[in-house]
Amino acid sequence: VTILSPENGATMTSAMIQIQVLIKTPENDPVTEIKTLVNGRPSGEDMRGLKIKPRSKAGEPHTLKITIPEGECEIAVLAKNSMGYSEPATVRVTYGRLVTSGDEFVIKPKLYILAVGVAHYNDQSLMLKYPAKDAKDFSDLMTLQKGMLYRDVVTKLIVDETATRDNILEGLEWIQSETTSKDVAMIFVAGHGLNDNTGHLYFLPVDVNVEKLKRTGLPTEEISRTVAAIAGKVIYFMDTCHSGNITVARRGGDMDLTKVLNELSSAENGAVVFCSSSGRQYSLESDQWGNGAFTKALLEGLAGKADYVGKNRITINQLDLYLSERVKELTNGRQTPVTAKPETVRDFTIIIRN
Question: Is the pTM of the predicted complex or chain greater than 0.90?
C-alpha cells in the first residue's frame, strides 16, 4: 500500500478526511480487506469483502474515509490478501489546534483494567501460589492513577474461584465494550498457559480440565480478537505458567508464547504486549518476592524504578527496559521477559508519579 494523499505533515480542515491509496497485489491474489489505524488503533472504518485486482502494473487507486481526533495523529493503512497483511503505509497529519498552553482544556483518558489471576485451581496438580495476588496487586497499583494521568480508573478483578472460562470471556466483552478511542485498556493475565498438541495456546481457567483443553481452556485467540476490537490504546501483560510445573506443562508440550506474542503485537492488532518469558521458558514465582518474578518487576517499575530520566513519568519504552533487566536479575538469567510494540504505536506515558 502507498498513501498518495494527504501528504505527510498536512493540516486537515475537517475531522472526516479522505485518504487516497495505491494498492499493488498479484493479479491472481486480490485484496480482500483494507484496514486503517489511527495512532496505532483500529479506526472502525475497515473495509471487508473486497476483491481488488490491479488494472495495471502501477496498481489500483482507492479512496478511504476515516475520522481523526484533534491534534497530531498518525494514520496507517494495511491491505490483506491470501498471504496476510501488508506492511503498514503511514502518514502524520494534524487537525484543529495543537495544545500549546496550560490554558487549554485537555480531556484525560479513562483507564479500564481487566485483571485475571488463577492460583487455586480445581485440579490440585495445577496449584500455584501468587497469580491471584499478582492480579490484585497490579490492579491496586494502577487504581492510584485515578485523577492523575487518568480521569478515572475502572477495574474488573477476576481471581481464583471466580476465574471461570465464562467469567473471563465476560470480562473481555466488558473491556471491549467500555473502552472508547480516547481511553486506555490494560489486560493483565496471570496463571498457567498450555499449548495443545497442535500448538494452540490456552490460558487455563480455574475449572479447566487439561484432558479436555479445547472445551474447558480459554484460547488466546479470544484475547487476540478482543485486543483487535478495542477502540483505545491496549496494553497486555501476560505472566503465565508461573511455577514451571513439569508434569502439567509436558501434557501438551512445552508452552511457547512466540505465536501469540507476534499475533497480539502485529500492526493490524496494535497492542503493546509485555510477556513474562521468552520462547519456552518457565515463568517463576517465589515466596522471597511475594509475586511472580515478572509481576514483582512490573510493580517496582510502575512504582517509580522505571523512571530513568527523572521526569516523574514512565513510558512503555522505559518500562520495557526495566523489566528486561530486573527479571533477569531476580531469576539469575533463567527468565527473560519480552516486549512487543507495533511499529504503528509510538512510545507513550502510562503512569505519572507524585
Answer: no
